[in-house]
């Protein structure tokens, strides 16, 4: 192995890897940190295309405002670029039902008056406290099943399934509620036999006079889009980020030092390694060391997405619905499943007098969307827009982000399988997993988790350095920490 031993080697220069590297260099300046990024640019899925006056986000476009994200942006000197919008503004979506656009319910009262649901479904919803007496399954269940158990199948099908598809590109019927929404999972357990509705009312009353719980705001970076943040972080990391360096192998020696080799043959030796790459890449890297962990990580599958940015003149959108856009349920005979007029949220993302639509196609139920050429896909979108809104104009701007493995699927049982993978990696205490394949689908939660992992990794790196200096036999290899920084135990693996 080479002579220089790095304290922390981060593999993956996406949001998770860069946040972690930033937290390490800022909070633990004595440690040496290197980031290996496989692509020619940093940022991973967070990529912004700026062209012809439009700003088209290939990946994350709206990210919730939490203190960690705000700190990251402000520390990077981009605080003056933040635009904030209430999350509620994003939910001003319509939904297609039998070819017609209907507003989505945005409140309990809205759910009772919406034409989207039958009178029987509304009655069933109100009877939730009675049905909630039936206990849910012990280990996990799908978001759809939980919704159906509480509010009835129609609400689960027509509201929950479509909202989850449209907002997170997830199939509610297979997505684990425990992994995707651990707070909801806990909330249901707290609610017990009272049911979600009664417990929500009770919790709201208890909070009266105290902090009111409100939906978070979402943030955008203007100008430059979200990519500006990761480019700035990489610049601030000052030579510690190596781009165009895809890791192809990972080995560990008898001194518990890790060696990562990249495609050009360069070998990096480190006391700790953080794999901030998608699960399938992590699986390939750990396969030789921990085959059981690799098998589980390989089992985390992804949904492919084709996201189009289409630019129009304002007057060409006269028949587009008010609000942000609309969701198209599967079964309506359309290829797209969501469309959002993103420049109604961030005006600067389209030139004056123009609108940028962001259209989503694909997902786990439509892998065939990748067989369409780009022109065919745009034609499908135009056909759908014509059918639902009457719009006939040809877009003056077209951009596409296509990713066959865009969004990790947290399928039912995901959390338990992850615990098994972490247990299988325990004999490598200097090896950590980070990123949105595991416990945080969205950008902000991924950032938060990566920042929280930093002190754990730093402590491990320092301990490894100390034990190298100490003569005599090494301490035990096992650590109580899981590879993603969590302590093991069923209640201790929650997402923040
Ligand atoms: C279309 C789309 C829309 C989204 N919209 C939103 C949104 O509106 N709001 C939101 O909060 N979140 C959104 N997300 C999710 C958000 O993008 C992720 O939460 C975030 O990108 C996860 O960051 P990450 O670092 O874990 O992974 P990634 O972004 O995937 O980064 C992983 C990095 O690892 C690198 N890498 C891979 N293999 C190797 C290797 N062998 N060696 C070295 N480097 C390697 C990759 O090149 C990449 O840079 C969206 C995602 C997609 C795809």
TrEMBL record:
Keywords: Cytoplasm, FAD, Flavoprotein, Heme biosynthesis, Oxidoreductase. GO terms for molecular function: oxygen-dependent protoporphyrinogen oxidase activity. It holds the Pfam family Amino_oxidase. InterPro entries: Amino_oxidase, FAD/NAD-bd_sf, Protoporphyrinogen_oxidase, Zeta_carotene_desat/Oxidored. Its EC number is 1.3.3.15. One of its GO terms (cellular component) is cytoplasm. Residues 460-471 have a biased composition (Basic and acidic residues). One of its GO terms (biological process) is heme biosynthetic process. It is found in: Cytoplasm. It catalyses: coproporphyrinogen III + 3 O2 = coproporphyrin III + 3 H2O2. Its main location: cytoplasm. Coiled coil: none annotated. Its cofactor is FAD. Gene3D superfamilies: FAD/NAD(P)-binding domain, protoporphyrinogen ix oxidase, domain 3, Protoporphyrinogen oxidase, mitochondrial, domain 2. Residues 16-439 form the Amine oxidase domain. Residues 460-496 are annotated as: Disordered. Pathway: Porphyrin-containing compound metabolism; protoheme biosynthesis. It comes from the Bacteria. Belongs to the protoporphyrinogen/coproporphyrinogen oxidase family. Coproporphyrinogen III oxidase subfamily. Involved in coproporphyrin-dependent heme b biosynthesis. Catalyzes the oxidation of coproporphyrinogen III to coproporphyrin III. This is Coproporphyrinogen III oxidase. It comes from Actinomadura darangshiensis. The lineage of its organism: Bacteria, Bacillati, Actinomycetota, Actinomycetes, Streptosporangiales.
């Amino acid at each position: 192995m080479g002579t220089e031993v790095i304290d922390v080697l981060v593999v993956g220069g996406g949001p998770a890897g860069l946040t972690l590297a930033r937290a390490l260099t800022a909070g633990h300046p004595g440690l040496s940190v290197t980031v290996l990024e496989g692509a020619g640019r940093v940022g991973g899925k967070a990529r912004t295309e700026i062209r012809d006056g439009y700003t088209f986000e290939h990946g994350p476009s709206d990210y919730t405002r939490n203190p960690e994200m705000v700190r990251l942006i402000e520390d990077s000197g981009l605080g003056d670029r933040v635009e904030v919008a209430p999350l509620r503004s994003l939910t001003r979506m319509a939904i297609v039902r039998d070819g017609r656009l209907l507003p989505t319910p945005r409140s309990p009262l809205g759910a009772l008056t919406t034409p989207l649901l039958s009178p029987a479904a509304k009655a069933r919803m109100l009877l939730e406290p009675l049905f909630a007496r039936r206990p849910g399954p012990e280990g996990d269940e799908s978001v759809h099943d939980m919704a159906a158990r509480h509010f009835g199948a129609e609400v689960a099908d027509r509201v929950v399934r479509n909202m989850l598809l449209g907002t997170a590109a997830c199939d509610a019927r297979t997505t684990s509620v425990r992994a995707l929404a651990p707070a909801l999972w806990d909330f249901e357990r707290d609610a017990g036999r009272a049911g979600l509705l009664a417990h929500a009312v009770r919790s709201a009353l208890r909070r009266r006079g105290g902090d009111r719980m409100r939906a978070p705001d979402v943030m955008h970076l203007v100008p430059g889009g979200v990519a500006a943040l990761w480019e700035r972080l990489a610049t601030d990391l000052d030579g510690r980020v190596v781009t165009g360096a895809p890791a192809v192998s990972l080995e560990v020696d008898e001194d518990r030092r890790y060696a990562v080799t990249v495609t050009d043959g360069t070998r990096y030796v480190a006391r700790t390694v953080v794999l901030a790459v998608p699960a399938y890449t992590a699986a390939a890297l750990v396969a030789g060391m921990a085959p059981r962990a690799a098998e589980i990580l390989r089992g985390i599958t992804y949904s492919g997405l084709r996201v189009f940015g289409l630019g129009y003149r304002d007057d060409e959108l006269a028949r587009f619905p008010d609000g942000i856009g609309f969701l198209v349920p599967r079964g309506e005979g359309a290829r797209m499943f969501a469309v959002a007029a993103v420049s109604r949220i961030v005006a600067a993302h389209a030139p004056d007098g123009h609108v940028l639509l962001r259209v989503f196609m694909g997902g786990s139920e439509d892998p065939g969307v990748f067989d369409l050429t780009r022109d065919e896909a745009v034609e499908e979108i135009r056909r759908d827009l014509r059918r639902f809104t009457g719009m006939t104009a040809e877009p003056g701007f077209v951009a596409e982000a296509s990713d066959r493995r865009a969004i990790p699927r947290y399928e039912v049982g995901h959390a338990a399988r992850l615990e098994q993978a972490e247990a299988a990696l325990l004999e490598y205490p200097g090896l950590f997993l980070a990123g949105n394949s595991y416990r945080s689908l969205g950008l902000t939660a991924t950032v938060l988790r990566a920042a929280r992992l930093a002190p754990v990794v730093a402590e491990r790196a320092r301990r490894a350095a100390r034990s190298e200096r100490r003569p005599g036999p090494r301490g035990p290899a096992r650590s109580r920490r899981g590879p993603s920084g969590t302590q093991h135990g069923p209640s201790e693996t929650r997402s923040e």
